[in-house]
Amino acid sequence: MSLAPSTSASRGDVTLQPSFFTSSLYVNPFRDDIRTLIHAYHEQYSQSSEKPFALFKKVWRAQGWEWLHCKVFDNRSREALMNVSHRLFLERTVKTEAPFTRVVALFGLYAFFNTQPTGSAPPLYSMKQILVPIDQYSSLLLLPTSLVSEILRPLQPYVSHILECLVNSEVFHIIPSSDLNAFNPRQLPRELYLDSISSESALQKSKKAGRPTKRDKAKKAKAALDGIDKWMHKTSVPSHPIEGGPAFGAPATTHYLLAQPPTQTLAEYKADKASMLDAIGFSPTHPSGVHLAMEQVNHDVLERLRQLQETEGPKLRTESMSFAGKERAERAVREMKEKGGPGLLGLLEGSGLESLEESCS
To answer: What is the C-alpha to C-alpha distance for residues 99 and 164, in angstroms, rounded to an integer?
Structure first.
């Protein structure tokens, strides 16, 4: 049941309506503020020896997040403020986000929920629960297990403690899976105001009928490239100096996402592959029936890639879109026949993923 307006609203005082918090006027700046919070915390976390959550509270207060609850006092508007803010924090905790981003979003959700004013007179409306889809709830409970790299391991006990407090306090109100769109409204922002998206408004005004010209495509591509370059520059952080780095003593920089190598996924894959080869008794130095079966499987996969090249190859328009994977597969099968080895299962060794993991560690 929806809340009734507060007495201040009934007296005719100016107050923000609930639709403001579901509109682009609130949603888009709030997303930008979360992004700024994540970057600021990561920058200080990589340079400070302070306790992780104490450092987060310092960054939280420095950016003025503690005053957000004073934005509105009307009951219905406060309900919209809390629900929308919780959703925007939760959307940065999904599995597709980087582990560090998920941790900071969880810290923000926890801090925002637990700093609701409780001793005001007259009392302000406060939320008792946080709506969360069941798939996001399950991924949140598994978040501590993904913090395995050296830079993320100190965050693990704090994440576990926060999740334990939220679960034991029955804060989470489970709703159907996110793909069923159980939230109301289904998408954010629900209302779009042209004044808040002037660039999109200008683009719509200049849009021409028919297909875009080559010049329009080039201008759009250049604008997108400039935007990515500015974002990378804004979100870059200092990296450890490396031999042969920038000249004249300039500090080396990297993007904060590249400082989080996929060590867990790589380690799990290597362990699973080793277990599988050991279980079937495969040995490259001792040919056997298992070895012959592996050769047959490798040749079947390679033949399938060749068939795909014959059917899909003519559809590719540029040289850069060729079947580079088939060439690597052929080389792996050839090395298996000449030197022994797992063939296609050995493609990880020497690949870009492994070299990236080693360079980032």
So the answer is: 18
Beta carbons of 261 and 360 less than 8 angstroms apart:
yes
Q: How many CA atoms lie within 13 A of 121 on its CB side?
A: 0
CB 139 within 8 A of CB 95: yes
d(CA 298, CA 304): 10
Helix or strand run (H / E) with residue 274 = helix 263-279
27 and 88 in contact (C-beta within 8 Å)?
A: yes
- CA atoms of 155 and 235, how far apart (whole Å): 21
| pLDDT digits 0-9 by tens, 322-336 | 566 677 778 877 777
User: How many angstroms separate the most distant Cα atoms in the chain?
Assistant: 88
pLDDT in tens, 149-169: 899 999 999 999 999 999 999
Q: Taking a C-beta distance cutoff of 8 angstroms, is the pair 330, 336 a contact?
A: no
Helix (H, G, I), strand (E, B) or coil at 92: coil
| pTM more than 0.85 | no
How many angstroms separate the CA atoms of 9 and 171, rounded? 29
Q: 172-175 and 130-133 as β-strands: parallel, antiparallel, unpaired?
A: parallel
Amino acid at 349: E
Report residue 303 as tokens. 């033949």
Both tokens of 70, joined, read 């004073």
